[in-house]
Amino acid sequence: MFFTEDFITYIWKFRLFDRESLQTTTGEGVEVFSAGLPNKDSGPDFHNARIRIGDTTWAGNVEIHINSSDWHKHHRTHDKAYANVILHVVCRDDEPITLPDGRRLPTLELQNRISPELYGRYRHLIYGNQQFIPCEGSIRYVDDINLRNWLTRILISKMNTRRN
After folding, report:
1. How confident is residue 101, by pLDDT bands cut at 50, 70 and 90?
2. For burial by CB atoms within 10 Å, which of 89, 111, 121, 128 has the most?
């Protein structure tokens, strides 16, 4: 399966991964109370997440990547906006990430916790319909009277818009 960062973000946001016996890549238990709020601006992908790692409950930011090594590729190590990331959620943990203060960033690997069926449905929704308008193939099923009525309403609406 070829995961995208958008897909991993979607999985995290809605907690659609297998949550049984979650552990960081170093073996600490993980419990997700809140995935956080998606960040629409620059900075970590989710704000205000609430997570227990080991015996400590954390509130802070979560960063999402395909591979843990993307942390370096995206220049997160010395970016102060990422200083309070409490969890790195990745598809594959291919490299341990150490923060500037020497702490290892807790990482949750999801590659074996995502249902292939869910991934298949996601791919179909995103990439399966390559038509210009998703419903364009359905127009042939609309009976002639409804189609003409609809086109007439569109024409009248357009004429009224131009008059005003």
Report:
1. confident
2. 89
Tokens 């598809």 identify what position? 91
User: What 3-state DSSP class applies to 128?
Assistant: helix
Domain residue ranges of the chain, discontinuous segments joined by + = 5-127, 132-163
Radius of gyration of the chain (CA): 23
- Answer for the pair 19, 32: CB distance below 8 angstroms, yes or no: yes
Q: Which DSSP symbol is given to 132?
A: S
Tokens of 83: 């200083």
Pair type for strands 85-92 and 56-67: parallel
Identify whether the C-beta of residue 12 lies closer than 8 Å to the C-beta of residue 46. yes
Q: Are 64 and 85 in contact (CB under 8 A)?
A: no
Q: Is 34 helix (H, G, I), strand (E, B) or coil?
A: strand
What is the tally of helices (H) and strands (E) in the chain? 4, 6
> Which structure tokens are listed for 66?
């395909």
* pTM for the whole structure: 0.75
Are the C-beta atoms of 28 and 106 separated by less than 8 Å? yes
For the cut 90, the answer to whether the pLDDT of residue 92 exceeds it is yes
Q: Is 162 helix (H, G, I), strand (E, B) or coil?
A: helix
Residues found in the chain: 164
CA-wise closest residue to 59 among 91, 39, 87: 87
